[in-house]
Design brief:
heterodimer, A: mainly alpha, 9 helices, rod-shaped, B: 90 residues, 3 helices
């Protein structure tokens, strides 16, 4: 093994490590990605003045308020959400917005660095806007949209059955269309099973349960993806049936 | 001679009547055969009301919108689940 080989190996390892870190994007990217122990450290950053810290904290609050504002618009405008889920999410968003605004006010009034530093960490630990609230909101909307799509398919299935029954295509083609409709029905049933309980499993998650409740968010996402795959397959069946029947 | 002409006219008239009757029968035969499928369709539609294809189109369009919403929201959730909060205090 010569020096060139060693150098190439080191470069490869460096690149791999870099790509691994890049996979997890820190939202407050002006600071290094903190490890869990680093974020829990009570030691204030020595080179930062109190005024500079307050600016950083305010900026972090404003970014989160921006995300929550966009989420609130999504929630208000989404036709997918049930009324109960919309009310629950709006309440959570509103509570986060007022809580963060009040926390920012407290931080800006702090007179010591240690005080401001401790409270600035609460912007993350008491709200988990980026890693929990925001994905949770999107998952609830997606899960409700899956339920809506299931309902629409249930309306469509008897209509397609009538089309097949009334069609003047050959018996062979009619049998193909019927097989597609049977497949469609089983896929919608599977989607029902996948999405059952998903909204309830995430809608009331709180930052206090972090990081444990990350498992619930990932499980919900997985179930929504499975349901989506079934619905996409069912949609393809619809196209094929309509094509067969002309 | 007059009698002969009258006889010939009677024969011609008989031929004409026969031809007209034949044409009418043929026409009736065609018109009976042609709408067989229409009659079948009519009886089918009576037994099983004609499906409203515009309703099917509407449901399909609605499903497409719902799938689009699901895709967009999953992508947005993915972004959050691959993010870390960072630490503004550091």
């Amino acid at each position: 093994m010569n020096a060139r080989t060693i150098a190439r190996g080191v470069a490869t390892l460096t690149l791999t490590a870099g790509l691994g870190l890049a996979g997890s994007v820190a939202v407050d990217a002006d600071t290094p990605v903190p490890s869990p122990s680093a974020s829990a450290s009570p030691t204030p950053t020595p080179h930062l003045s109190l005024a500079a810290l307050k600016v950083r904290c305010n900026s972090a609050v404003q970014r989160r308020l921006g995300t929550l504002g966009a989420d609130d618009t999504f929630v208000k405008q989404s036709s997918a959400l049930t009324s109960a889920d919309r009310t629950a999410l709006e309440g959570q968003i509103s509570a986060d917005q007022s809580g963060l605004t009040a926390l920012d006010g407290t931080i800006q009034a702090d007179t010591t660095f240690a005080q401001a530093h401790a409270e600035c960490e609460l912007i993350v630990t008491d709200y988990r806007v980026y890693v929990m609230e925001d994905p949770k909101i999107h998952e609830v909307i997606a899960a409700d949209a899956v339920s809506n799509a299931n309902g629409t398919f249930e309306t469509l299935i008897p209509e397609l059955q009538s089309l097949i029954n009334a069609s003047s295509v050959s018996a062979t083609v009619k049998a193909q269309a019927q097989a597609d409709l049977n497949d469609l029905t089983s896929k919608v049933d599977a989607s029902h099973t996948s999405i059952s309980g998903v909204t309830a499993s995430v809608i009331n998650l709180t930052p206090a349960g972090w990081p444990g409740n990350q498992v619930d968010l990932k499980s919900a996402r997985s179930n929504i993806k499975t349901a989506r795959a079934d619905l996409t397959g069912a949609r393809a069946d619809v196209s094929h049936i309509l094509q067969l029947l002309g | 001679m007059t009698h002969l002409r009258a006889h010939r006219n009677a024969v011609l008239c008989l031929i004409a009547v026969t031809a007209i009757a034949g044409c009418a029968g043929a026409t009736r035969g065609v018109s009976t055969a042609a709408p067989a499928s229409v009659a079948n369709a009519a009886s089918t539609s009576t037994a099983n009301p004609a499906p409203d294809t515009s309703a099917v189109d509407q449901q399909v369009s609605s499903i497409d919108n719902q799938l689009s919403t699901i895709n967009g929201q999953i992508n947005a959730a993915n972004a959050g689940l691959s993010t870390s909060e960072g630490d503004p205090a550091q």
